[in-house]
Amino acid sequence: MNTPAKRRTDPERAQSRRNQVLQAAAVCFARSGFHGASMSEISKQAGMSAGHIYNYFDSKDAIIMAFVDLQSEHVMTQLSELDSKDDPLQSMIDEAPRHIDESLDPHFFELPMEMCAEAARNPRIAEAMRAADVEAMARFRPIIKRERERRGLAADDALLDGRINTLVSLFHGLPVRALHVPGMHRDALVEGYRVALKALLLT
Amino acid sequence: MNTPAKRRTDPERAQSRRNQVLQAAAVCFARSGFHGASMSEISKQAGMSAGHIYNYFDSKDAIIMAFVDLQSEHVMTQLSELDSKDDPLQSMIDEAPRHIDESLDPHFFELPMEMCAEAARNPRIAEAMRAADVEAMARFRPIIKRERERRGLAADDALLDGRINTLVSLFHGLPVRALHVPGMHRDALVEGYRVALKALLLT
Q1: B198 vs B64, B202, B203, CA distance in Å?
Q2: ipTM of the complex model
Q3: Smallest Cβ distance to A181: which of B118, B133, B179?
Q4: pLDDT at A107 over 80
Q5: Which of B70, B79, B81, B170 shows the greatest Cβ crowding within 10 Å of its Cβ?
Q6: Gap between the Cα atoms of B105 and B100, Å rounded
């Protein structure tokens, strides 16, 4: 039989408990905001005692940091997939519909929006988001550079910076746009995104 | 001498008091989040009694609604200016640096980010933001349509929808990008934005 001490050191069980807390926290943050949600609300939602939660996360900040890590893992996986394509630039344009659909899913964007609002006032969280971004750019930038050079397009550092930050802004802004215009014409949006992506990547 | 009753009905004084509350609320929302900031925190920041604040705003929702209205007035003014230009499409491209600088100013974006996070969970605020957007689009869209037709470019409804929503996403996303990359190379960003705007507006 598991003793409490053993439970805490079983990595698989600990991971599953951590995920249980994260899922509950996502629900509470969406409902009450990061500042409005208390550790006791999160523990009630997770069906765990507050004391038990503190075994995994010592604060709400630690919970939001875990979301930053999850988001970062998701981005790094997507970048590895991109790097393995025959033609990464063209595939970004071709796959615009998939990225658009993902960005338009409220379950996908509500939490990042809350995280950004919090990062704007919480330097520790902003710092974690920035570090994750530096890591992602260190993976993304060489792909764009290599592929532009392969096509004989300008690929100096300043140009790459500007094009990449514009391109990423485009996707960061889509959930905000969807919040303002819930019934967006999806195919028309795909056309617009392809026009912009093509200009940014292939000219 | 003003009596309290007279004070409440003096429109100029009422407006100045409303602004005092809004400025205090902006500080409190930035510091504590919309859910974390209480009416009593806002009244303390404004140097007014909580009871006095309720003369102007009957809830925090009413305060955030007033921010939606202010934002909307700002957008409508910008659209009138745009409409008065000789060449509105070219001027949007030329004026990218000004819009970028505005979007990169934390005082400009912290509150909208908080409003969006709140709108994602508060249907009344989402509804107000959507209504303001419908009004803005009713002003923006005919300008783009007229100018594209003048240049002999396609201007059917679906295309206009997609191009405009892509373009607006670009600017919605910039503050989020700036949060991730505080030291963005501004001139490189201007180049990227111009490339995207030119493709969206002039092709």
Answers
A1: 35, 5, 7
A2: 0.86
A3: B133
A4: no
A5: B170
A6: 9
